[in-house]
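Troubleshooting entry. The earlier prediction with flavin mononucleotide gave an output that would not parse, so I re-checked the input for stray whitespace and re-submitted. Clean input:
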Amino acid sequence: MNMSADVEKDTNGRDVIFERASVRAFTDAPVSDEQARLLLRAAMAAPSAGNQQPWEFYVVRDPQMLAKLAGCSPYAKPTAKAPCCIVPCLRTQGLRFPGCASQDMGACVENILLEATRLGLGAVWQAIYPEPERMQAAREVLGLGDGLEAFCLIAIGTPASEVHAKGADRYDESRVSWVDGERA
Ligand SMILES: Cc1cc2nc3c(=O)[nH]c(=O)nc-3n(C[C@H](O)[C@H](O)[C@H](O)COP(=O)(O)O)c2cc1C
């Protein structure tokens, strides 16, 4: 292990990995089509097993639909008052590596959270998958057809208060095993 401080953490304030924090309260400012497309472009840049890209996305900005989505999970209240919720959905049919699909979805969700931070937006990941009751509720709200499952709700908007400065650095050396050696 030999890392300089500037490699460990970008101190220019541009390091979205460390600036990101879950945001659960938003102003009334809308999320524009352009912002939503930037978020989805980041999502679709995520790695996936065999590049199978098992995702489809709903961009929900209708307040009544946002309230209904918030009712799909006991932990999704932020969605009710957010100006926008992106619902990444998981295709369950025709995948080459179906066992990896939820990992693919996690990668794409993290990309959305990081891009939101870069854009000065705030967001929070609210789990739907793999809870059957939440998945069924989201299926009914969105009218999802066979072969598509809601993965999570990502409430997005302008943060109601300054949050990005408090992004976490949870580095914990006790979680790391270093396995070093020399090439023969
Ligand atoms: C798989 C997953 C599910 C989560 N589900 C919820 C949720 O249902 N509601 C919520 O408010 N936050 C949810 N979160 C956000 C976590 O609570 C949050 O990431 C964690 O407390 C760390 O805080 P931070 O995101 O600010 O670093 C979820 C995060 C992940 C990765």
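This one parsed fine. Residues 1-7 have pLDDT under 50 and may be disordered.
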